Each structure stands twice: as C-alpha cells, then as structure tokens.
TrEMBL record:
Pfam families: SCP2. This is SCP2 sterol-binding domain-containing protein. The lineage of its organism: Bacteria, Bacillati, Actinomycetota, Actinomycetes, Kitasatosporales. Residues 62-150 form the SCP2 domain. It comes from the Bacteria. InterPro entries: SCP2_sterol-bd_dom, SCP2_sterol-bd_dom_sf. It comes from Streptomyces monticola.
Length: 155
C-alpha cells in the first residue's frame, strides 16, 4: 500500500507551482508501486497527466528539433488508457489529449510509473525499451532520441 502521506502530499500539490526539477525529485522519491497506486485515483492521475503534457510545449527545444516533422502518440496504461499526441513541426510543439485520425510517426506505450519516470528524467528510454517497460511502434530511432527535443530535468 502506498504511504498515505505521499498520496496526500501529491493530492494537495499545486502542480502549476512546482518546477520541473521539484517534480523530478518528487517522482524520484516514489517507488513504481506507489506511483501505480496513486494512479488508481483517476482525478489525481488526470491532473498529473494534464500538467505533464501541458509542460511539454513549454519545455520543447525548437532549436534542437530544427525541421523535424513528427506526430508522437503516447499511450499510458493504468486503470484506464490515456492517450495524448505531441505534434512537432515548423519549430513548434503542440500537445492534445486523445487520438487523432492522423498516422503517428511513432507510438510509445508504457505504464503510469514508467511514464512519470521517463518524463521526469528518472529513467533512460533506451533502458526502458530494452527491459520491455516501454514499447515502441513505428520509428524507433526517433523514439530513442526524443528526450533531446525537450528540456528534461535531472533529479
């Protein structure tokens, strides 16, 4: 069972007021089991995913992406499946919730704990892929280099 103090602290957190570095430290302090138990609370899970994906646009590094054109679909499996898409083109990054009719260049599939560890800089995407914690459909080379297009904190 997750430490109820961790759940309470996360539930009371004002995500908008937490820096990416602080968020990375919070995630680093949680076990996969605790993250997965926290994700059982659908309201809290939605708040966390909304904030993480909302920050992607702000943490995008257009100078690194250059002329890259790619639609990345994220499928996060937990109690329910959450789907988001990151559309990179013309030096911009746009994020939307849900699945569009467009064909993604790559689809990344993982659980809640793996997703939070990945986006907070607490896990290597290559290691996750090799350990089958991250499944990739489509352009594996793009997937392996995605982290360079975003300013990801180090916890």
């Amino acid at each position: 069972m997750a430490d109820s103090e961790n759940l309470d602290n996360l539930a009371d957190l004002d995500f908008a007021g937490v820096s990416p570095e602080e968020f990375a430290k919070i995630v680093k302090g949680l076990s996969n089991k605790e993250i997965n138990e926290i994700a059982q609370d659908q309201t809290l899970r939605t708040r966390v995913l909304t904030e993480v994906f909302g920050r992607m646009e702000r943490q995008f590094k257009p100078e690194t992406a250059g002329t890259l054109k790619a639609l990345i679909r994220w499928k996060i499996d937990g109690v329910s499946e959450a789907v988001y898409e990151t559309d990179i083109q013309d030096g911009t990054c746009t994020v939307r919730e849900g699945r569009s009719n467009a064909e993604p260049r790559v689809t990344l599939m993982m659980g809640d704990a793996e997703f939070l560890k990945l986006v907070s800089g607490n896990a290597s995407p290559v290691t996750m892929f090799m350990m089958r914690k991250l499944k990739v459909a489509g352009d594996v080379a793009l997937a392996s280099g995605l982290t360079r297009y975003f300013d990801i904190p180090k916890a």
